[in-house]
Design a protein that fits this description.
6-stranded antiparallel sheet, Beta-Lactamase, alpha+beta, about 900 residues, 6 domains
């Protein structure tokens, strides 16, 4: 009887709950089946109807809004100013037209008076492209589109009104201004019916969506309300049925209870857990189940003869404490070491609770063998110790934070950054306790983002100010910390110190900045190319050097694209041969083609570019435009050659002059010597004859020296040319007078018809010398009784030509070619043996060319010569 009451007290609660559930299940099983089927079917029908109603509400509201927007757009289009769009050029010049101003003002008023409209515009189609005619934006707005600007974002649907002439509403489009829909109304030519332009209005779809969402939410609420009412009615009906059944089933519990006790006695003995009843005062074992028998290795009777102290290896004090807890009617859990029959010690987890049986307090023990679990825990503890050792010795900062962003774990590196010595000083505190407020707020915002969204932050560069005031750059990663249910309980943070790398990057940045500043301000073309020769960088000066903007070259042009065709193949091969050797090069001279077609000469130098793996990725170099320098060098070379030639000609010329001077001087010396030695023997007639010869020699020498002096002054640049207004008639007449005596001596007629209306811009002395030399030569080489004609006429408005024509001996064709050359000696005696130096014509050529004129001769041997030269005509300034 005592044993039965013990089980009765222990398992009573379990008996009742189990039998109630069995009874409930058996009595309402059929009802629930029938009701559940009907309820589910009705619920599904209601859900389907509700879904259709919600969908109908959405479509109906969207249709109504579309019609309303289209009506507004159509009405607004009808109110546009009566403008003939054919008069527009679709260019910036349209802004000066009154029709454009009226149209733009109307478009602006549309946006101002329609709160839903955000942008109004008119556009046309040209050659398959869309161009704006006018829009509603102010001219100073950054979103203003001037006439003629291409609508580069236009889609196929924007061109549809030009194809079918129908109005439409575009699908929603998202951009930097928001999400929009557009109404497009075709503006048609009255005469042809074709679409000339399209009037468009952009609407912010946010208000549109709000209206649709509002009506849709109303439909959803109504549907949900009906479903909740249905569920409430079904549940109420079910509960009423259950209560009714409960009354009947409880009457059967008493009967079922007795039957259940016997079944649970069996369950107690067959339970897999070790179950033990003991006396808390004496620790005597009162009863055990079969699991206890198997665990301890003793029979039931053997165990009942033992006390708890016999099988527990813990101290008596621990056992006494357990008994006291049991006596105080307190439930407790302990870990004990127990000795089983074979002497082995097992670790057990004991759950004890006091139980009163026939006014006697006993302890009901549920014992679990946790030896393997403790072994696993110890192994896990060692692994955790190993992990902690690793974490503490990793140079990166590692920490764990809870949902409030308080640190629950930190390693030694994090302790160093925060300036504390032990982990206890930082645990439970957030970043505000260790970092400046502004910095801590940024960390907190990042932490909350990770915790609330579950999004990882990986390798974010940020800096901290450590406890010593040093700025440290970290590569921070923050990962959500999940529990076994995949719920976020905090985060794990890792901070990799990249301060040294940042210093290197900063130094590299500064170096690149210096390079960029030098490059951008350099006067030479600085460039970079990849291994294929494609330009990856050029500085702005390239525009001045080769005529192309940097945007036309970078990523589009290869260095050999600019080579002149004649040298392209050779220069390209030479360049890639150098690249293959990965050598630097200097002052490669190459001819390139400028954008305007002209050729320029560049001096190119370059060095290889290396990546982090020390592999060549291209070349960097500089091009110097040496076109002018080369031209100057070529000019200097030509000048040097010319100077050498001139010096050679001068040497030859002076040799000729020396030879010409030697003959008359020798004659002069011989005559004077003869006269000094034989004066008494000469007759008066002989003395007169010899004196005349001396005079002629002296005059010839004087003229030769005078011409030589003037020619020398011209060559040295010391003879100035002073141009002035001179009457050509006066010049010619004065020089005719100067040689008239010689002409009369040879009975030569000089004919000239003055033209008083012609004036020239010339140097008087030089022109006199030219006329005097040419007239003297004409008299000298004209036969006695001959004629000399002087003519003057205007070639054009700015040039006057003078010609001196004689009927003398003439000049051979071979001599004509050499007549004005300084290194050629062309001289002969006159018709009456008058001497000639040949220097006069050279002087004439120099003087005429000094005055920007030309001199030439036309002659035929035996028929005479015509010497002509030109001078600038004097033009009166008004």
């Amino acid at each position: 009887m005592t044993k039965f009451r013990l089980y009765d007290n222990v398992f009573y609660v379990f008996y009742v709950r189990f039998n109630i559930e069995i009874s409930f299940y058996m009595n309402r099983n059929d009802f629930e089946k029938r009701s559940a089927i009907v309820a589910k079917m009705l619920f599904i029908v209601l859900v389907i109807c509700g879904a259709f109603y919600i969908r109908y509400t959405w479509i109906n509201e969207e249709t109504a809004l579309s019609k309303n927007v289209m009506v507004i757009a159509r009405t607004t289009a009808d109110l546009l100013p009566n403008v003939n769009f054919k008069n527009f050029d679709v260019a910036v010049s349209d802004t000066s037209k009154a029709e454009y101003a009226s149209l733009k003002k109307h478009l602006s008023s549309i946006v101002q008076n329609n709160p839903d409209a955000k942008f109004a515009y008119i556009y046309c189609e040209r050659n398959g492209k869309i161009f704006f005619i006018a829009d509603s934006e102010p001219i100073n707005s950054k979103d203003y589109s001037p006439p003629g600007q291409e609508y580069t974002e236009a889609k196929i649907i924007d061109k549809k009104p030009f194809i079918d002439g129908k109005e439409l509403i575009t699908p929603a489009v998202s951009d930097r201004w928001g999400t929009w829909i557009s109404t497009l109304i075709p503006i048609k030519d009255v005469s042809t019916g074709k679409t000339m332009a399209v009037f468009g209005i952009d609407y912010d779809i946010a208000e549109w969506n709000k209206s649709i969402l509002s009506h849709t939410i109303e439909a959803i609420l109504l549907t949900v309300t009906l479903l909740l009412v249905f569920v409430f009615l079904v549940n109420t009906r079910a509960k009423n049925k259950v209560l009714s059944d409960d009354i009947r089933t409880r009457k059967q519990l008493e009967k079922q209870l007795k039957e259940s006790v016997e079944r649970f006695k069996t369950m107690f003995n067959a339970h897999s857990a070790i179950l033990v009843l003991i006396d808390p005062i004496s620790s005597q074992i009162i009863d055990v189940n079969q699991s206890a028998v198997q665990f301890y290795g003793y029979s039931v009777d053997e165990l009942k003869r033992k006390s708890l102290k016999d099988i527990i290896s813990n101290t008596n004090n621990e056992i006494v404490n357990q008994m006291e807890l049991a006596s105080g009617e307190k439930e407790s859990c302990f870990i004990f070491s127990q000795i089983i029959s074979n002497g082995e010690t097992r670790i057990v987890e004991v759950h004890s609770s006091p139980i009163e049986i026939e006014s006697r307090m006993l302890l009901f023990l549920v014992i679990h063998d946790i030896t393997e679990r403790k072994t696993t825990e110890e192994k896990l503890q060692n692994e955790q110790l190993l992990l902690r050792t690793v974490i503490d010795n990793i140079p990166d900062s590692i920490y764990v934070k809870d949902l409030a962003c308080r640190k629950t774990l930190v390693n030694r590196t994090e302790l160093m950054y925060t300036g504390v010595k032990t982990e206890d000083e930082i645990l439970g505190k957030d970043d505000f306790a260790f970092y400046p407020k502004e910095m801590a707020e940024g960390f907190f915002a990042d932490d909350q983002f990770v915790i609330q969204t579950g999004t990882r932050v990986l390798n974010r560069e940020e800096y901290i100010i450590d406890a010593y005031g040093n700025k440290r750059w970290l590569l921070t990663s923050k990962i959500p910390l999940l529990d076994k249910d995949e719920s976020i309980i905090g985060l794990v943070g890792i901070g990799h110190d990249i301060t040294e790398r940042k210093f290197i990057e900063e130094a590299l940045l500064q170096s690149n900045l210096r390079f960029t500043q030098l490059s951008e301000n350099a006067s030479e073309w600085i460039w970079e190319i990849d291994n294929a020769g494609l330009y990856t960088y050029v500085n702005p000066i390239v525009k001045e050097v080769i005529g192309y903007d940097p945007e036309e070259i970078i990523g589009k042009k290869y260095f050999f694209d600019f080579f002149a065709e004649k040298d392209k193949e050779e220069l390209t091969k030479m360049a890639f041969d150098t690249f293959s050797k990965q050598e630097k090069f200097k002052d490669y001279i190459n001819t390139n083609r400028h954008k305007d077609g002209r050729e320029i000469i560049l001096s190119t130098s370059g060095v290889p570019l290396y990546n982090e793996e020390n592999k060549v990725t291209g070349y960097r170099g500089i091009d110097v435009d040496i076109t002018k320098r080369k031209r100057y060098e070529e000019e200097i070379k030509l000048k040097n050659e010319e100077l050498i030639k001139i010096n050679s000609e001068k040497d030859k010329f002076f040799s000729i002059i020396a030879h010409d001077l030697r003959s008359p001087l020798n004659g002069f010396v011989n005559l004077t010597e003869l006269m000094s030695l034989r004066t008494s023997e000469f007759t008066t007639e002989e003395i007169s004859q010899y004196s005349k010869l001396l005079h002629n020699s002296g005059v010839n020498i004087s003229n030769l020296l005078d011409n030589l002096l003037k020619w020398s002054m011209m060559q040295r640049g010391t003879l100035a040319c002073r141009l002035q207004n001179l009457n050509i008639n006066t010049l010619i007449q004065e020089n005719i007078d100067s040689i008239s005596t010689k002409a009369q001596q040879k009975e030569i007629e000089i004919r000239y018809s003055p033209n008083t209306s012609i004036c020239v811009l010339a140097d008087k002395n030089m022109t006199d010398t030219v006329l005097r030399n040419l007239l003297t030569n004409a008299v000298k080489f004209t036969y006695r009784g001959g004629k000399i004609d002087i003519s003057v006429f205007e070639i054009d408005d700015s040039t006057v030509q003078l010609s001196i024509n004689d009927n003398g001996v003439g000049i051979s064709e071979s001599d004509i070619k050499r007549l004005f050359l300084v290194n050629e000696k062309v001289s002969s005696l006159g018709t009456e043996d008058e001497p000639s130096s040949g220097l006069g014509l050279l002087l004439c050529k120099e003087f005429i060319e000094k005055q920007n004129g030309q001199i030439w001769v036309e002659s035929e041997k035996g028929k005479g010569s015509v010497f002509s030269f030109t001078l600038q005509r004097f033009i009166q300034q008004h």
